[in-house]
Please model this.
Amino acid sequence: MSAQVQQAADASRFVPFTPERIADVMAVERRIYPFPWTSGNFADALRSGYSGWILEGSDASVIAYAVAMLAVDEAHLLNLGVDIPFQRQGYGARMLDWMAQTMREYGAATMLLEVRPSNAAAVHLYRNYGFRTIGRRRGYYPGHHGREDALVMRVRLR
Model:
């Protein structure tokens, strides 16, 4: 990690994901995912009142971000991303922990998510956090050669 990237990360903080930050998040989303959400997906989520958060560096750069919705007492983590220079350094776990705590404060007893089985780093992150696979959604994700299944995972928050 470069000194500049390290300095930005050292002073990181969580801030609400607002519509004004969609372009910043989209830049990261396009770098890290082969089939990224669109700016419209993010705008719709924020307009619907979903909980969106950004872990930003001291220079306001996006280190990580996440969006979740709450339905009664279950949170659904819809998107979590970490920019490339910050991957495999604990920022995904920090973002996940922040979202779990936030959803817990909103009254969620569990959190659910879908993840590509081919995304080994994400599956590892979620399993280490305590998520367990509870199902599979066939053909859930677009792929380069057809569609890819999703693992459905859940963790208890309280």
